[in-house]
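haha ok so turns out i had the wrong file open the whole time. this is the CORRECT one, sorry everyone. sequence first:
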Amino acid sequence: MPLPVTLFKPGPVHCPGCHSVQAKPADACPHCSYSAHVCAKRFPFTAPLLEPVMDAGSHLSPAARTSVAGEIARLEKTFPQLHFHVCLTELPEGMDVREFGFWLFNASVPATQEAHEQRPWSVLLVIDQAGRAASLTIGYALDPLLDDTVLERILAAGEEALQNDLAAAGIITILSALRRELTLAQRNAAAAAARVVPAPDHSPAPPHAPQAPSQTTGY
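then structure:
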């Protein structure tokens, strides 16, 4: 099921530092001066490659990891452009999970040209086990489809499971919510396309209509 981005307008830009809303992208936030340079200084180490399941602390059992990976594969089969990643970690006290997600998403260097082309269509879920918080970061190609209200709704779907330390169940519930939202976006786009595409002209041609002459361009 292709994701129809061209029928939607981009949403507002949110600063990863102060979370203020901006009408368009800027090199630095006009409210708090947050920038990519500031972000890099806060995380002075090399970002890992984005993988479907990142769980260095083994918060998921092998069976749970397999289950989560299977659900990710099914989602990506439904939406071939989409690439989903989940990172389970334990952030230091005071570190904002949303800012960490922004840094990881942007600082992780794609290993291949294909991975580079996939990044705008990627979704990164970060679960901070220590801070008991989660965030979703998306590529710019998905911005017109998944605004902040939708992302909050997706995260809220998995909140109960995550609060009860059921990480795999929370991730799978979030994947299901993401599938529903993207399916709804696809249906809305199809309806919008039906409204904007002009109906074909089935009126009969006038009798003995003359054939238009061919045109050529000299060079």
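The chain is about 40% helix and 10% strand.
again sry for the mixup
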